[in-house]
Amino acid sequence: MGKKVTKNSTSPAGSKWTGMVPVGDTVLAVTDTGGPGVPVVYLNGHAGIQPQWRRVIADLGTEWRHITYDMRARGRSKRSADYSFETNVRDVDAVLAARGVERALLVGWSYGAFVAAHWVSRNPGRTVGAILVEGAQPYDWLDEAIEQRIRKLWRRLSWLMFLLRPFGVAPRMTAEQLANSNIEAGEIARERELGPVLDNITVPTRYVLASGASLGSKGDEQELIRASLPAVTARNSNIKISAKVSSNHGNILRKDFRAVAAAVREVAALDRDRH
After folding, report:
1. Per residue in 176-203, pLDDT tens?
2. String of b and e for 187-224 (b: at least 16 CB within 10 Å)?
3. Within 10 A of 165 (CB to CB), how many other CB atoms are there?
4. Per-residue pLDDT tens for 232-257?
C-alpha cells in the first residue's frame, strides 16, 4: 500500500505531514501532526470533513499526535465505487499503515463512532481505547417509514450538496448513495448487530453524548437511542459514559469539544495504568 505525498513529507514521528493515501480505487486525504505523543485517529460523521475536529485537537494540544482524514468522496478524498460500512472500517487500517502507526486511540463522531466501535472490537491489541461521540448506540430505530424519510431528506438536500461541493464541504456522492449509507448505518445500529460488537470491546471506551435531536430525527427519537447505553455499560465494564452535554448531535464538536478532549485524556490515562 503506497502513498502519494502532496506536501510536508516527513518520517511518521516527525513534523506535520499532509498527503494522499491510495486505497483500492480511491485516494484518501490525510493529515498527521506527527510528534512522539499518543496517536489519536479522528473518524468523521457521515458527511463530515477533517476541520470539524479542530477545536478538539486545539484543546488537546501538541503533546498528542493527531491524525485526521476524509472518508471516501468527502472533503479532499476521491470518489469510489464502494461506500459500504465495511470499506470505511478497512480504511482505518490503510491510514494507520500509511502513517506507520502500530497502536492508536480512536475518536469517532456519529457515523465515525460506529466505525471506531467496530475497529477497536476487532483490533484490541492495536488500540489504546475509543471515544464514541454521539454514535454506536444499539437501538432498532430503522423501519420502512424512517427509511423513506431518510431518502426524502437526502433528495431534498441534494441541491445544497451541489452548491457546497466546489468548496470541499459536501460529499461528492449522489442523494441515493448518501441515503443508502445512512440506511446501512441504521441496520448496523440494531441491537442484534451492534450489541455483540460492543460486548466484545476489551479496551477503555467512553461515550460522550449530546442532548436533543439530530438532523432528520423527530421528537424524542434521539433520546430513546441514547437510553440504550445503560444496558451496554452494565454488560461491559470497559465501556462507560464520560459525559452528557447540553449541545445537540450536530454541534457537539463545536460547542462541547472540551468534553470530548477530556474523554481522550481519561482513556489514555487508563491505558497508561494498564501498561
Report:
1. 999 999 999 999 999 999 999 999 999 9
2. ebbeeeebbebbeebebbbbbbbbeebbebbeeeebee
3. 14
4. 999 999 999 999 999 999 999 999 99
User: In 33-136, where does DSSP find H-type helix?
Assistant: 54-60, 85-98, 111-122
Q: Whole-angstrom Cα distance, residue 272 to residue 275?
A: 5
In this structure, what C-alpha cell is assigned to residue 45?
460523521
Which pTM does this prediction carry?
0.93
Contacts of 68 (CB under 8 A, 6+ apart): 30, 31, 41, 42, 44, 50, 53, 57
CB 205 within 8 A of CB 267: yes
Residue 250 is which amino acid? G
Contacts for 144 with CB less than 8 Å, ≥ 6 apart: none
- How many Cα atoms occupy the beta-carbon half-sphere of 270 within 13 Å? 22
